[in-house]
Amino acid sequence: MNKLPISEINKLKKAIENANSIVLTGHQNPDADCIGSNLGFYHFLAQSKENIKIIMPNRFPENLKWMRGADKILVFEKDTENCQQIIEKADLMFSLDYNSFHRVGKMQESLEKATCTKVIIDHHPQPSNEFDIAFSDTSVSSASELVFAVMMELSEKQSIPTASAESILAGIIADTGCFAFNSSTPETYLAVANLLEQQVDKDYIKGKLFDTYSINRTRLMGYLLSEKMVVLPEYRTAYIILTNEEKEKFGYQIGDSEGFVNLPHSIENIIFSVFIMEHEGFVKMSLRSKGSFDVNMLSRKYFNGGGHRNAAGGKEFDLSVDETAQKLINLLPIYKEELLKS
Ligand code: 5GP
Ligand code: MN
Questions:
Q1: Which of 47, 134, 141, 232 has the smallest number of CB atoms closer than 10 Å to its CB?
Q2: From the CA of 142, how far away is ligand 2's center (Å)?
Q3: If phi over 0 gives left and psi between -120 and 50 gives alpha, with beta otherwise, what is residue 151?
Q4: How close is the Cα of 268 to the center of ligand 1, in Å?
Q5: What is the value of pTM for the model shown?
Q6: Residue 42: beta bridge partners?
Q7: CA distance 93 to 24
Q8: Which domains, ranges and CATH numbers included, belong to the chain?
Q9: 36 CB under 6 A from ligand 1?
Q10: Stretch 184-190: mean pLDDT
Q11: pLDDT (tens digit, 9 = 90+) per residue, 246-290?
């Protein structure tokens, strides 16, 4: 982790002190790191401030609803007018786990228009310049880890509430896939050690995040691996397509496909995997790589998306799932050298 800029910490301290209404926000299709960093910061701020709201652009998966305070989260798509007013009236706003207002779906215009002080705490590359106070570091495991570091500075290393520690640890565990990726620096484990001292139960969190799926979801995973995974060893690549028809057949619920994109990575020599999912009106892609092969670049350049070097997302609006797969296949020869050396 890079050292937190002290000037930004000082500005943030003042901004929090002076704020009468604070709004915390996350990205479209919020995941555990997004919800964890928001709730982690919420419980911390709530010790000294009133009138704090959390707004997500759209719904979040069922397996995150156990987090303390999750019932307080407002959803912009469901409660638009109320959320617009909260954003308009806020005098301090936080963008957690995303790097640009392009990432907040229908909430974008409201956030852009807001005249309050805007703060980013995030770990995605290429943050936009829409923020007044910025903590942006791609070397951390997760936005949650960075929020924790910011809280430690703000509180002058006082302990944080258990509910806060629990949400932060959930974000770290989820974004690292249980410490499988983005988790090779001592700082991550120092943060985890510190969080465990706040009486949080790691096994409970792991169970809530990863062991609460439906039978259908597990069967869908088996089906995709056995019937749908396409492996292209010459490009060290694998991809999986999930159609609307298959989603219906397996009673697909939002969040069910979480982690599927990583499955081909356990095959020897596979370093690039893509999960292609049909939605109403568009195709969503998840891209993952190992080593130097940059899926953030690939997604930005070809698939209307972005993310991190080893984990990115993208969308196609005018192609079918099969055409999207074909587009991907056509790109592989161009990147063969990079795929082989990654
Ligand atoms: P996922 O595959 O889980 O949807 O996304 C992987 C990573 O890429 C996450 O860090 C997510 O924030 C980022 N990401 C997903 N979709 C998009 C997108 O459309 N644009 C950008 N810039 N990042 C994305
Ligand atoms: Mn994240």
A1: 47
A2: 5
A3: alpha
A4: 25
A5: 0.93
A6: none
A7: 6
A8: 6-210 (3.90.1640.10), 215-341 (3.10.310.30)
A9: no
A10: 97
A11: 999 999 998 899 999 999 999 999 999 999 999 999 999 999 999
